[in-house]
Design goal:
The protein has one domain. Helices cover 24% and strands 20% of the residues. The protein starts with 9 loop residues before the first strand and ends with a strand. 4% of the residues are buried.
């Protein structure tokens, strides 16, 4: 059955302005191994505990929304919208709407 909200979480990217490190092979299941790990290029923290906790909260919210919409015809909900989520290190996030595909 189609879900109201779908999530794809993967990859680790350094948020330091002067750094371009990213590893797109990291999966959500591997995130606990990356908490408080230093960036191999600049030494910045790649995934703070606060950001990881926020990821878990977002996943819980998505599950709750999907349970709430269970049985609804998803075509009645309107247009599909896609967002990128940038973690900010302190548990807060920045949302950026993606272009329709």
């Amino acid at each position: 059955m189609e879900q109201a909200v779908e999530v794809g979480i993967s990859g680790i990217k350094c948020d330091a302005e002067e750094c371009d490190f990213e590893d797109n092979t990291v999966t959500l299941d591997n995130y606990p191994e990356w908490i408080n790990r230093e960036c191999p290029k600049c030494g910045a923290n790649l995934l703070t505990q606060a950001d990881y906790d926020t990821v878990l909260e977002m996943l819980g919210l998505v599950d709750a929304l999907n349970v709430s919409f269970d049985g609804f015809d998803m075509s009645d909900l309107g247009e599909e919208v896609s967002f990128s989520v940038k973690m900010k290190g302190d548990g807060s996030v920045e949302l950026e709407e993606r272009e329709a595909q």
